[in-house]
Each structure stands twice: as structure tokens, then as C-alpha cells.
Amino acid sequence: MTRINDLFSVEGKRIVVTGGASGIGYAIAEAMTMNGALVGIVDMSAERMEAAAQRLAQIGRRPELACANLANPDEARASLEGLHRVLGGLDVLFANAGISGGPGFLGADGARVEANRFEAIDPGVLERTLSVNVGSVFHSAQAVVPLMKAAGQGRIVVTSSISASKTELMVGSAYVASKGAVGMLVRQLAHELAGYGILVNAICPGPTATQIAGGRLQDAAMQDVLGRFAPLGRIASPQDIQGVALLLASRAGDYITGTEITVDGGTHLGPVAVPDGRDRVSRGEG
């Protein structure tokens, strides 16, 4: 019989988190650090990384840092290969870096926003969103797969979104398209890499209070609006993602691959009847 502390242990594992200086990425790095993992962080902001490193050093070992734009394949490879050397290997990559693709066609009041209609989207928004949300995952995976193949094992965990599998009203089409592509990439990689002992999965959050989209989901009024549309009555905090991250990084996740795990407070289920007779409508941004 396996004890739960052993089953979910990440003690001594070499783990890299991209976009790890804030939001969901920082929460993942925090969970791994607190539980004894050797952590590396990749982020575009050296200032944010240093602040994150100082906080993490207070609860465990200080993380190793690498500043890079992961939408650039050369920077992705250099940063991840460098952390692989410093950490003495790589057991888990959390490919978390991502950006918003702009607001959707409905505003918080439920009315259509003319400026956000599909035909008004700047092509540059699509290009940038795909470059970061899809490109960073693609380039990060390409950098670490040879290293994991050589080790005969490894795990890649991608931060995706419920937008990968549902239409959205308050989330821009560029973001939805990017996360749909990420979902398919996760399944494709899981299928190809299983024979090398490499597991590939995705975590799909619903609305979460992070710095994405300029931090608009950290606004109390916006949280109140979106929280009413989730069956559990609130949006997520980054810490709500920590349990699933530990599952996928530990022995507890040994037989899980090609899976997208939804963590959204039930938002994907749709409208919910509430005591005053009104319906909640799922309109979140993951």
C-alpha cells in the first residue's frame, strides 16, 4: 500500500515552469518549491523573476532563473537547455507562458461591443496570440523532448484553458483559436512521445485572477460578474491549480497522458439556476 505523502511527492524532482514569475506559473512554482522540488523559472521579465525568486526562497530552495522570450525558438532552446544543465536534469516542464487575445464580443453587461466584433480584430492580435500561446509551447517542447528522450522519461504539462473546448462570449476569438491549437498539440505529442516514457497533459483553468489581459480579472467588480456565472460562485485563484499540478508531476500521475484536466468551478457545465430564479450564464475567460 502506498502512502499519500509518497504518491504525491515531488521531492528532489527537477522542474521548470515557464511564465513562472506570476499568476498560475508562480503558484505552480510555489507548490513545487514548498514540496521539495528543484525549480527553474523562465520568464520575459527579469525583475518579476527576481521578486518571485525572493519569495520562493523563503519557503524552500531559491529557484534557478532564465530570462527568455519563448515565442523565439532559439531563446526557448537556450533557456531550457541552460536550466537542464544547472538543475542536473529535467523531470517536468510546466509550459505555462501565455497571453490574452483581447476581449470577446460581449461586455460584462451582456451587451455586444461593436469594437470587439470578429471582423474588427487586428490580424496582428491573432499573430501575436498564436506566436505566444502556441509557439511558446511548441518551441519549449521541442527544446526539452530530446533531453527527456535521452533520460528515458519526462513530463510536459501545458497550461491551456476551458476555451480550448468551448465557445466564449467575453473572450476574443484569437485566444480561443490559440487554446484550441494547444489542446490538439497536447494530444498529438502525448501520442507520439508515450513510447519514450514522456507523458504530456494539459491543465484547463476557467476564469482565474492573474495578470493576463492586463490584470482585469484581479478587479473585484469583474470577479463578481464572472463569479456569478460559475456554479461554485467564484472565479479561481492561482492556488486552485496547485493540486492538479502536483498530481501530474508526481507518481500519482504515472498513468495519465493525453488528458486535459478542467479546473473551472463548473463553468463548462453551462447555466445554473440560482435561488432568486435568474440563470447564471458561463462567459468566463481562462
From TrEMBL:
<dbReference type="InterPro" id="IPR052178">
    <property type="entry name" value="Sec_Metab_Biosynth_SDR"/>
</dbReference>
<dbReference type="GO" id="GO:0016491">
    <property type="term" value="F:oxidoreductase activity"/>
</dbReference>
<keyword id="KW-0521">NADP</keyword>
<dbReference type="InterPro" id="IPR020904">
    <property type="entry name" value="Sc_DH/Rdtase_CS"/>
</dbReference>
<comment type="similarity">
    <text>Belongs to the short-chain dehydrogenases/reductases (SDR) family.</text>
</comment>
<protein>
    <submittedName>
        <fullName>SDR family oxidoreductase</fullName>
    </submittedName>
</protein>
<dbReference type="InterPro" id="IPR036291">
    <property type="entry name" value="NAD(P)-bd_dom_sf"/>
</dbReference>
<dbReference type="InterPro" id="IPR002347">
    <property type="entry name" value="SDR_fam"/>
</dbReference>
<keyword id="KW-0560">Oxidoreductase</keyword>
<dbReference type="Pfam" id="PF13561">
    <property type="entry name" value="adh_short_C2"/>
</dbReference>
